[in-house]
Amino acid sequence: MKTATAKKSLSVFFLAVSIIAASGVVHAASASYNASVPVWGDFESGKLKKADTTSAKNKVTYIEDDRALVSWIENQGGSNLTTKVSYSSTGSYVMDYAGNASGLVGTDVLLNISTGSSNFTSTDTKGSWSPDNF
After folding, report:
1. Each residue of 4-34: b (16+ CB within 10 Å) or e?
2. To which H or E segment does residue 14 belong?
3. How far apart, in whole angstroms, are the C-alpha atoms of residue 21 and residue 81?
4. How far apart are CA 103 and CA 34, in angstroms?
5. How far, in Å, CA of 48 to CA of 73, rounded?
6. d(CA 93, CA 65)
7. For 26-77, how does the pLDDT look when each residue is reduced to its tens digit (9 = 90+)?
8. Strand ranges (DSSP E) for the chain?
9. Which residues are within 8 A (CB) of 44 and not within 5 positions of it... i.e. 6 or more apart?
10. Backbone torsions φ then ψ of 101, nearest 5 degrees
């Protein structure tokens, strides 16, 4: 009787570990940022690995004085991979990958943010981003 109970407990344990491990694979990576975006040039985040074929997302939680910003995703070589999205308020912004996103799965990408063309001062901003739609 103890053997059957031990086997059942062991099976439940391995099932729980499998579910936890699989959930780590399913969830896309995301990172927070707290940046001062310069007038000339841009803010570039650290790199994250693209996990699936969905669009990228930038969740903006703060923009200094509701100034205009633009965000997009680049590869490590500096080539733009997504559409550029302009915004001047907080919210979630989707950036669609140009071309076939399946070719980018497993590669490292970065978030870039620049000031809008009508903005002539550096701008503080906060939020989180993912190379995948989270």
Report:
1. eeeeeeeeeeeeeeeeeeeeeeeebeeeebe
2. helix 2-26
3. 30
4. 30
5. 11
6. 19
7. 456 999 999 999 999 999 999 999 999 999 999 999 999 989 999 999 999 9
8. 31-37, 43-44, 48-49, 56-63, 69-75, 85-87, 91-95, 108-115, 123-130
9. 74, 110, 111, 112
10. -65, -20
Which residue type sits at 31? Answer: A
pLDDT in tens, 84-132: 999 999 999 999 998 878 899 999 999 999 999 888 999 999 999 999 9
51's tokens: 């996990």
Q: How many CB atoms lie within 10 A of CB 2?
A: 6
Q: What angle do CA 61, 124, 42 make, to 5 degrees?
A: 105
The pTM of this model reads 0.78
C-alpha closest to that of 129 among 72, 78, 53: 72
